[in-house]
Amino acid sequence: MSQTLKKGQKVSWNSHAGRAHGKVVKTITSPTRIKSHKVAASPDNPEVIVETEEGKRAAHKPAALTSDNRSKQ
Q1: Helix (H, G, I), strand (E, B), or coil: what is residue 64?
Q2: Domain limits at 14?
Q3: Residues 6 or more apart whose Cβ sits within 8 Å of residue 9
Q4: In-domain check, residue 45
Q5: I want to staple 11 with a disulfide (CB 3.0 to 4.6 A). Which of 19, 26, 48, 65 is the partner?
Q6: Number of domains forming the structure of the chain
Q7: What is the pLDDT of residues 13-65, one digit of tens each?
Q8: Half-sphere exposure of 28 (CA within 13 A, CB side)
């Protein structure tokens, strides 16, 4: 995704269970942990924290995310 991701923006990404949907929580530029997973973010290699519609959080590279314009029904 070439555009800048903003907090609250709806995005989607590929996951092991198929296409996942959620929103951007924040962009991180320093190493952190999500549950037991190490996220090796840096200023040169930022990661985006996303939250699924079910409330689960994960970190992804910005290029792995696409804008999600599907309508809520």
Answers
A1: helix
A2: 10-64
A3: 23, 24, 67
A4: yes
A5: 65
A6: 1
A7: 998 888 999 999 999 999 999 989 999 999 999 999 999 989 999 999 999 99
A8: 18
